[in-house]
Design a protein that fits this description.
Shape of chain B: elongated
Number of strands of chain A: 8
Structural class of chain A: alpha+beta
CATH topology of the largest domain in chain B: Heat Shock Protein 90
Distance between the termini of chain B: 104 Å
Strand content of chain B: 15-25%
Helix content of chain B: 40-55%
Strand content of chain A: 25-35%
Distance between the termini of chain A: 25 Å
Largest interface: A-B, 30 and 28 residues
CATH superfamily of chain A: CheC-like
Number of helices of chain A: 6
Mean pLDDT of chain B: 83
CATH class of chain A: Alpha Beta
Oligomer: heterodimer
CATH architecture of chain A: 3-Layer(aba) Sandwich
Number of strands of chain B: 17
Number of helices of chain B: 18
Number of domains of chain A: 1
Radius of gyration of chain B: 41 Å
Shape of chain A: globular
């Protein structure tokens, strides 16, 4: 299953609406202009997630993981490489970064940012599908990319797909990219694509 | 209270009991509302920190009880919770959820730092209200602040270490440069003397003086280096006595006088006789004043003026050296007393020296419990160095001129008729010592090794046996220590008690101790000062 160019464009547009809201609340929280957009979105079978992500993030990563449930269910993660995570925290709080392992306050800020982004993205899907999704409490972990991937692949039955949403942050003349990964069952993906097509054809 | 096993427990009552149990726990704040945002649960922690009891707030609208929430826009998170979303309220972005009194005043925050969560209260699929948890993170913040401090300290230490490494590299190249100059002069003149068979007396005298001057410069560099090493290993020993700073200053002026004259500078001294004595090492303090004066001479152009003042300043004695020289740039001023630092470390430096003089000044002054400061209005505006030393009120003040042997003075002790046996493996040294000692009237014999010396002593009939032995310490096969142990093992009749003086290029206190332990009466460091050597030999010969 692949996304057509049109479907991709529409999906980017839907997520950008959510990201706009997320950026607005981050701007309000930090008192500085935060710009957030989706330059790219890709979809792949879950077992190919590793090879898709490897060129983009290396070494240790910080990931904020949430499970969502409802009529659409799955896993949602925000993945930042360690450097970007430290920079993002520093930019948002104006406090010098120290190693994330030692800095519970930084991990908490990143958890809040991840939560805002994931909520915004899935909230847009929910609006599109006219369904309500509820979320688990977000958790931040620091581990290798392989560790992150295995946390969403183990004990999951059935064919699953991963949407990789590039999240480009711009604030204070700096820019960095994080990756939203939304893991969905085939059925959920199909519902999402149908809804996207209807939205594109009708409500636009 | 009664314990009943029957009747079966009602699930609703069990739940209520559980909520009560958890609400009594005090490590975290927790409150819950229904969908119309009326408070349903308010735990013990919330009562403690809000100052409002559960019975006071339960049933009332949350936004009436916590008016701050709406003002700060946090009500949005409750709207989200009612649609199934969870919000993280991080300290980093919000500081606190509710404005409670801080539990740790040292953090300097106006409200208790908090980490909060707001989420939906679910009954199966249905949202039946909201739940909020609050954590006081004062301890965590204190730990993080401490960690941050440690990281900063480590980073500073690394920067300092890197700077020190760089300074040391520069210093090494300075040292080799500074030592090569006098060495070249010594070698050059020595070669001229070797190559020319007939040297005219004027050239000879010039050559010898140049060699002497440059060798002295080398000796001073080595002295400075050794002083720095001694200070950094804590081995510099000060002989503390009540001393008169004015007298010490005059002694330093005597030494620096020729350089001042040679550079056509004017030295003005103002030595207040009412300056109280300080407890100090007169030789080291003289070195301190000499270093400051020598620094002033170096950086002042001909025609300039140097002021030397010794006065009382409150409870302290104050030495001020002020010059009209090149001054110190504001950027360099903070580093002026650092070891190995010179304002111009490039290879084209106009001013010689190792950059140790002022570092030594600071360290010696601080060892005396004093402090030294440098002031300058910038380049071209001259410089002022001020030393403050604590004073003692005592009449027992030493006057340096009376006791200090001026280096290079020719007050050689007479050794008339004293038989001296010189042991040295190097012919130059033997010749030099023979020359020196003969001038003092000694009868000198020389040998080139320890074994030769032992047989010389054994073979000499008593009337020709040496009165005193002068032995080098560093010799091949059997060194001066070994020689002395063997000599001291001999019977007195065989010469086992002949007094002996050790001479070596190693001037540190350990070498001296080792020599004395081996059986020498005294130890003289190279370069040899004739007065010191002749005095040592005379004393040793007297004793024997």
């Amino acid at each position: 299953m692949n996304l057509t160019a049109l479907q991709q464009d529409a999906l980017v547009e839907v997520i950008n609406i959510g990201f706009g809201r997320a950026a607005a609340s981050l701007s309000k929280l930090t008192g500085q202009r935060v710009h957030l957009e989706v330059p790219q979105i890709t979809m792949c079978p879950l077992d190919e997630l590793s090879e898709h992500l490897r060129p983009m993030v290396q070494n240790e990563v910080a990931s904020i993981h949430q499970i969502f449930s409802g009529s659409v269910a799955g896993d949602a993660l925000l993945v930042l490489d360690e450097r970007s995570a430290a920079i993002l925290k520093e930019l948002l709080t104006n406090e010098p970064a120290m190693p994330l392992q030692m800095d519970a306050s930084a991990r908490e800020v990143l958890t809040e940012v991840g939560n805002i982004l994931l909520n915004a993205c899935l909230g847009s899907f929910g609006n599109l599908l006219h369904v309500q999704v509820s979320f688990s409490v977000p958790h931040l972990t620091l581990e290798t990319l392989e560790g992150v991937v295995s946390s969403v692949t183990v004990n999951r039955e059935g064919l699953r797909y991963a949407l990789i949403v590039h999240a480009a942050f711009r604030l204070k003349n700096s820019s960095l990219t994080g990756y939203l990964i939304i893991v969905l069952s085939v059925a959920s993906i199909e519902r999402l694509i149908r809804a996207i097509e209807q939205w594109e054809g009708g409500e636009r | 209270m009664t314990l009943s096993s029957n009747p079966p427990v009602d699930a609703g009552r069990l739940q209520t009991a559980l909520v009560r149990w958890f609400s009594e726990l005090t490590h975290q704040g927790m409150f819950a509302t229904d969908c119309s945002m009326r408070i349903m649960v308010w735990n013990r922690w919330m009562e403690v920190h809000s100052g409002r009891t559960a019975s006071d707030v339960v049933g009332r609208p949350l936004y009436d009880v916590c008016t701050d929430l709406k003002i700060r826009g946090l009500d949005q998170h409750y709207e989200d919770a009612l649609t199934g979303r969870i919000s993280i309220i991080s300290f980093g972005l919000h500081k606190y959820l509710l404005p409670f009194v801080p539990t740790n005043a040292e953090l300097g925050l106006t409200a208790m730092p908090q980490s909060g969560r707001i989420g939906p209260l679910m009954d199966g699929e249905a949202i039946i209200g909201t739940v909020t948890t609050i954590e006081d993170i004062s301890d965590r913040l204190a730990n993080e602040a401490e960690l941050r401090k440690q990281i900063d300290v480590q980073r500073m230490a690394r920067v300092t270490a890197e700077k020190a490494m760089r300074a040391k590299d520069e210093f090494l190249s300075t040292v080799s440069h500074e030592m090569r100059n006098p060495l070249n002069a010594v070698l050059g003149w020595a070669r001229i003397l070797i190559e020319r068979s007939d040297v005219d007396p004027a050239v000879l005298s010039r050559a010898v003086r140049a060699i002497e001057r440059n060798a002295s410069a080398l000796a001073r560099i080595i002295d400075d280096l050794l002083d720095v090493a001694r200070i950094s290993t804590g081995k510099l020993r000060l002989e503390m006595h009540p001393v008169d700073l004015s007298a010490i200053a005059l002694a330093a002026v005597d030494v620096i006088g020729p350089s001042i004259k040679a550079k056509q500078l004017e030295l003005r001294t103002r030595l207040d006789p009412k300056t109280p004595p300080v407890l100090g090492d007169q030789q080291r303090l003289q070195q301190v004043i000499w270093n400051l004066l020598s620094n002033a001479v170096k950086f002042t152009d001909p025609g300039g003026v140097i002021d030397l003042t010794v006065t009382r300043s409150g409870a302290d004695a104050r030495i001020v050296v002020r010059d009209t020289g090149h001054g110190i740039s504001q950027e360099f001023l903070p580093y002026v007393f650092e070891r190995f630092r010179q304002s111009d470390a490039s290879s084209s430096r106009r001013h010689g020296g190792l950059g140790l003089g002022l570092a030594l000044v600071k360290e010696v002054v601080e060892l005396h419990g004093g402090r030294v400061t440098a002031k300058s209005d910038g380049e071209g505006s001259g410089a002022t160095f001020t030393i403050d030393l604590p004073t003692v009120m005592s009449a027992d003040v030493r006057h340096p001129q009376a006791e200090v042997d001026q280096p290079g003075s020719d007050l050689a002790h007479s050794l008339a008729g004293v038989r001296v046996l010189v042991i040295d493996d190097e012919s130059d040294s033997r010749e030099l010592l023979t020359e020196f000692l003969s001038k003092c009237g000694a009868v000198v014999s020389t040998v080139t090794s320890s074994d030769e010396a032992l047989s010389h002593i054994r073979m000499s009939p008593l009337p020709r046996r040496p009165h005193v032995i002068l032995s080098d310490l560093g010799m091949p096969t059997k060194d001066g220590y070994e020689f002395m142990r063997e000599l001291r093992a001999l019977r007195t009749d065989d010469g086992g008690a002949i007094p002996a003086v050790a001479v070596s290029g190693y001037a540190n206190p350990d070498d001296r101790q080792r020599a004395l332990a081996a059986g020498y009466q005294t130890h003289v460091a190279k370069p040899i000062d004739l007065a010191e050597l002749s005095a040592a030999l005379a004393r040793a010969a007297d004793r024997g």
